[in-house]
Amino acid sequence: MTHIIELLKVIVLGMVEGFTEWLPISSTGHLILIDHLIRLDVSAEFMEMFRVVIQLGAILAVAVLYFNKLNPLDPRKRPSQKKATWILWSKIAVACLPAAILGVLLDDWLDAHLYNDFVVSLMLILYGVLFIFVENRRRFQEPLIVKSRDIGYQTALYIGIFQVLSLIPGTSRSGATILGAMILGCSRGIASEFSFFLGLPIMFGASFLKIVKFGFHFSLPEFFYLILGMVSAFFVSVYSIRFLLGWVKKNDFTFFGYYRIVLGVIVLIGHIITSIIG
Question: For the whole model, what pTM was predicted?
Answer without folding.
Answer: 0.91
